[in-house]
Amino acid sequence: LVFTPGTAVLNPDAYSVIDTIVRMVAHIDNQVRIIGHTDTTPPSDPRYHNNWELSSGRAIVIADYLISKGIAPDRLMVSG
Description:
- There is one protein chain.
- The chain has 2 helices and 2 strands.
- It is α+β, with helices and mostly antiparallel strands.
- A two-stranded parallel sheet has the order 1-2.
- The longest helix has 18 residues.
- The model has no long low-confidence stretch (mean pLDDT about 95).
């Protein structure tokens, strides 16, 4: 739903889902933990050597998007 298999590229349909999450967390002060996941598909992007790196990269992509929508970076924690 969110990423193209084997990549950290957001699917166009994912933005509406993430925008809903932005609206849910924008007005509260808690920390937001973003945990990236993958499946058994090997990464097809040469920046990621394995699925552990890909899952972390996916979490960072989401964090960057949340920041671009006004969520303070110091509220975000990412892991893969």
